[in-house]
Amino acid sequence: xxxxxxxxxxxxxxxxxxxxxxxxxxxxxxxxxxxxxxxxxxxxxxxxxxxxxxxxxxxxxxxxxxxxxxxxxxxxxxxxxxxxxxxxxxxxxxxxxxxxxxxxxxxxxxxxxxxxxxxxxxxxxxxxxxxxxxxxxxxxxxxxxxxxxxxxxxxxxxxxxxxxxxxxxxxxxxxxxxxxxxxxxxxxxxxxxxxxxxxxxxxxxxxxxxxxxxxxxxxxxxxxxxxxxxxxxxxxxxxxxxxxxxxxxxxxxxxxxxxxxxxxxxxxxxxxxxxxxxxxxxxxxxxxxxxxxxxxxxxxxxxxxxxxxxxxxxxxxxxxxxxxxxxxxxxxxxxxxxxxxxxxxxxxxxxxxxxxxxxxxxxxxxxxxxxxxxxxxxxxxxxxxxxxxxxxxxxxxxxxxxxxxxxxxxxxxxxxxxxxxxxxxxxxxxxxxxxxxxxxxxxxxxxxxxxxxxxxxxxxxxxxxxxxxxxxxxxxxxxxxxxxxxxxxxxxxxxxxxxxxxxxxxxxxxxxxxxxxxxxxxxxxxxxxxxxxxxxxxxxxxxxxxxxxxxxxxxxxxxxxxxxxxxxxxxxxxxxxxxxxxxxxxxxxxxxxxxxxxxxxxxxxxxxxxxxxxxxxxxxxxxxxxxxxxxxxxxxxxxxxxxxxxxxxxxxxxxxxxxxxxxxxxxxxxxxxxxxxxxxxxxxxxxxxxxxxxxxxxxxxxxxxxxxxxxxxxxxxxxxxxxxxxxxxxxxxxxxxxxxxxxxxxxxxxxxxxxxxxxxxxxxxxxxxxxxxxxxxxxxxxxxxxxxxxxxxxxxxxxxxxxxxxxxxxxxxxxxxxxxxxxxxxxxxxxxxxxxxxxxxxxxxxxxxxxxxxxxxxxxxxxxxxxxxxxxxxxxxxxxxxxxxxxxxxxxxxxxxxxxxxxxxxxxxxxxxxxxxxxxxxxxxxxxxxxxxxxxxxxxxxxxxxxx
Length: 948
Hints:
The chain is an alpha/beta fold. The chain has 29 helices and 27 strands. The chain starts with a strand and ends in an 11-residue tail after the last strand.
């Protein structure tokens, strides 16, 4: 796509003649030549697509209230409803309802891309104006066609009157002084206010076992974490409903490390006790603010020395922060077990492997890497930042399912160039961060949709072939990024800190290239990608030896939450597919369940004929998994393994995938290794230990149901005696002795009976009793027992709509005509009873989802259908959305076996699994979120719990 024009002898402004531009520092250099790859000369990218206008109305799934509304927005016709909704609500600037409000994707892309082109021209990145125009068109085309996306701060800020902040990831520093600690609080607050997150290492702060200069005892870092946690909980990130994202790191040799390890586990125990006592301890609950340390991810920075001591079961020294002398010794194995136990209980702390991180550090002469950003993918110098961008891997898959390495290389060149340009005009929250970032120019190119790519090419996520292709693609990405960085150094200069760190930087480049040579491929497709990667590393080293590099870092693997939705990605970051069925919104309104579109492609790659493909897809639509699918061979099951579901990927499978790509990343990987509820503390130990052995830089785990309100059983440290098992159960809300009620007489198929419904005084059904059959008969006794079980369930909080969804349409005698005008026919007595209860106690919205209406409501619907002319545009829009998905992939509520309303893929999967998934509700729209790296992302509105 681009080539470097060599250094010029004279200084001049860049123009069409290709005269040298003045680079940073006043050095006369020539810019880049840019060639067309995706675009056609003489045709603007906007003229190649079909545009349409849509109305964006986003409602809270829980109560139907409107969260956001903007009508008549303009997008390409191939953009999904979800992508349009999220981009419109999140990234369009200007007050809604005013002329200044953006209303078209063209305006958004132009605002950002034009800013990059102007800055690139000003700072000498392009040889001529024609090259700048080609760059503009190519960047526009890739964004328009969802080939990549910048991170969210770019879309928020670039080209607006706001500060031009482009970075999502920040690392701060704090020293052992009160002034520094208070400054830490201030800097974090400013970053949270701007909508980003930050991480830092507290290990410079002296421990609670050391003395102050005045002779008093120090507070220790854990105590100062309380103030920072309260600040983070108070400042809503970016003025939105999302709370602040932060990472707190402590070195394993800090004397307060045990207190740090147990901090969040103890608070989780407090949450359980308070919730059991009737306090509102749910996410966002009014009483949750009384719990500390909940706004940060905690990680222990472990050294090779410590891990070897764990291996040998020997003692390990904890060192004074002021003198460096040992102040205490601990059994390394016991300390490691405490980390695993705390993570088993509450998912914190994670581990960061200090020596591995610093062995791949390009700037060792400037300082060590001590911390990371909140999601743990960006690791660099203190007081620095990183702007991110992610490529959509599925866009580079050819029709024959081979990976298009050539186009991928060109795309990486273009994106890494744009990312570097942004540092030239970017604003930063603090001057130290701005200074470090401008001197070292850290970038974080990455990708999304790896899981979908592997499935589409018929590779299992946890397979040698899957890991081989992932490693080759990651190596190609970072190799190309650093080769382009070397070319940029030739054009506009190496980063300021390069001269001091030249040997260290070159050493790391050679380590990356050597790791590329050690990849073992399984089939020719992977060999082709790896060969292309080898060429990029070879050329990059050659150019870098002569000119240096423009960027100290080039790549990370971020969670890609919101921008993943913007690109219509099936999977985020390095994650596998979440599940085989998805929850999809339709253009004409409403939603539907579909089978992942990569599944038919994978089946065809595996050699299945079209009839078999249709049968297997239909089976998946009905069951949500591939086990026992007709005609599908068991040896192919692994291709369709997902993060959750009937066949979920084993925890070590996630670790092995991370280890396969880690040698080809400047930073690390945002990912949490999910473990089943039955996993043991020893299993956590194994994961953390293998992460170190396999060369990961960071690792965190999450055990299903380890959070609030779940049964918990632990063993005392150093004892075989189990502690008593404490079970936390829901609290029964009993009815008062005097309560309102109603009694209904009914007839179903000639059988007469009575329904008594008792209510709480403050509204809501609390008990039911059914009289059917003669006193003392078997039928009467069964109905009495049934009534009591339903009543107790209602009092323990089981929603009435759950019972209705389970018992309506239940078929047995007596059945037939009823004497109820609202329920004329019933398939059984229970079918009638729960339809009647739904009509009396459920709101219209929930009854509509269940298909239960009064006679008057049905009459009104019929009258409206036959008296009001339907909009042909709306009907065609809805039909087009439905027809776009093969009919075999649509599963109705009946085939799913449940009529319960769902609002996201996570909730859809919960229906399949029959149990709740550990994901929070979105605090913006109420939809259940799904994992995205080490964070969570909302499919409804694009909100994230961390990096976006």
